[in-house]
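Changelog excerpt

This revision adds worked examples to the README so contributors can see how folded entries look when concatenated. The first example is reproduced verbatim below.
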Amino acid sequence: MTPARSYTSTKKANKRNLVKSGSPTCSRAYGVTPMAFLLQFRIEQSKRLLVQTTWPVARIAEEVGFRYLSHYSTCFSRKEGLSPSAFRSKFTRNQ
């Protein structure tokens, strides 16, 4: 992308109040990058679905925006310390 085109794209984005993914403004406002915020949101939504539905884990992963089940499981496990299936078992056992 040429510098002129890059400037034009940034200018258009600023007019629409869009923020680049590495923007310090977004990080200051939310304390995390936009991608980290999105990942956290998706994991929280999936936790709710794991507890409130009997949907397969693959469907939940897809519903919250993950294309690949393996990627979802890895992200979930890193954030929560256990797999989506283990999370479901732990929090729905007594219900």
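The second example, added in the same revision:
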Amino acid sequence: MNVDVRLAVGKVTSLAVINGRGGILLPAGFELSEKIVTALIKQGIESVEVFDTSENEALNVLNERKIKHILSLFEIHNAPKMDELRECLINQIKNS
């Protein structure tokens, strides 16, 4: 959900916040405080993509995306050590 940055305090970013030069200012999954919103406004950011849910639900969605990404990276590998690494990464996400 795209919202005016001034109304985003307490929301969690659903996508990374990117400046005009393509640099990442904030990652997806970042909770926006008043101080951060003020800094984004100073950077010329007018709107941000945020989750339309609670912080816990938002983090669950991000974790699901991360796990899907890891699974896609490892689907071409068919080696026990790679399977072990994949499971280790997924477990790390689940336990964070």
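Reviewer comment on example two: The chain has a mean pLDDT of 89. The radius of gyration is 16 Å.
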